[in-house]
Amino acid sequence: MASEQRAKKIVMTGLAGRLGQLLAKRLHRLGTHQVIGIDRRPIPDLPKDIEHLQVDIRSRKVREAFRGDAVDAFIHLGLMHDPRQSRTELHSWNVMGTARLLEYCAEYAVRKVVFLSSANVYGPRPDNPQFLTEEAPLLASQDFPAIRDLIEADMQATSFFWQSRGKHTETVILRPVHILGGVRNAASNYLRLGRIPVLMGFDPMVQVIHEEDVVSAILLCLEPGVHGILNLAGPGEVPLSTLIREAEKEVLPIPSAAFASAVRLMFRFHLTSFPFPELSHIRYACMVDGTRAREMLGFRPRYSIREAVRAALQAPVDTP
Q1: Which long-range contacts (CB under 8 A, 24 or more apart) does 42-49 make?
Q2: pLDDT for res 24
Q3: Rounded to an integer, what distance in angstroms lies between the CA atom of residue 50 and that of residue 58?
């Protein structure tokens, strides 16, 4: 009789976040994985077969998750996107923390590394082509300095991919478009506003994706042979005005010059959760070509744009 097959060991960061919990529940239902989640935040109602290592990702105690049985996959969902955090803390967490985690992946010969980045790294710009491929330059930080650390972490993962290519590790850098759902991000927060401000004279095309479709794509990335940089597009693209109509919200048209000052003040005094640097996303387009993910992953979004918008408005919101 053949011996019982070992459960695949998965180490993941960001377990307490919305995507982390959705992914953990999916893995729990599959019942074929040993999951160790790293997150310094407490997590209520976690499935008993999911191990929670409650430490900071920069802590040396993180090494404990990589010891013992070989790690079949490491999934990095634990980047910090809080615009109210200091630049020093964001850099330390996102750049230095990611570097240390990738060092552990190399040291312990992790077989699969999945890094969740964002299509926002390309940056919304007036001169963007209709659809950006994975080879497009990462220009977001030119107008949005706060995203510089995300770009640097994305480049760290890309460098790790090239260094480990052909060796023991398959690396995937996943760049999804705006994620909608219970996640606490600029896109979902924007649609949750009572009256949605828009810039007069601007109605860019936008792409969104349901949070459950992102989780499905991450699971597909775990399949053998999947590697490289993958743009993850949703079910299509629509004008921003259409997205707002789907949310059944009133718009607040504001001249662009006045809008910048108003949003800065509102954000400073906690009157809005929409940070000023995100203004570019409601002015210019930043759409990606998802062909590579369709071909390599066989990815097809299950949820429509309307369902994604409803998820942002109705789902319980992830805590910071």
Answers
A1: 42/16, 43/15, 43/16, 46/15
A2: 95
A3: 21
The CATH code of domain 8-314 reads: 3.40.50.720
Predicted confidence (pLDDT) at residue 44 exceeds the cutoff of 80: yes
Structure confidence at residue 67 (pLDDT) = 94
What's the rounded mean pLDDT across residues 151-161?
Answer: 97
Rounded to an integer, the average pLDDT of 149-166 is: 93
Task: Tell me what the mean pLDDT of segment 239-257 comes to.
Answer: 90
Can you name the residues that pair with 76 across neighbouring β-strands? 13, 115
Q: What does the alpha-carbon distance between residue 302 and residue 215 come to, in Å, rounded to a whole number?
A: 11
Name the residue ranges covered by the structural domains of the chain.
8-314
CA–CA separation, 117 and 158 (whole Å): 11
Percent of the chain past pLDDT 90, that is, above it, reads 70
Q: Which has the closest alpha carbon to 22: 1, 37, 6?
A: 37
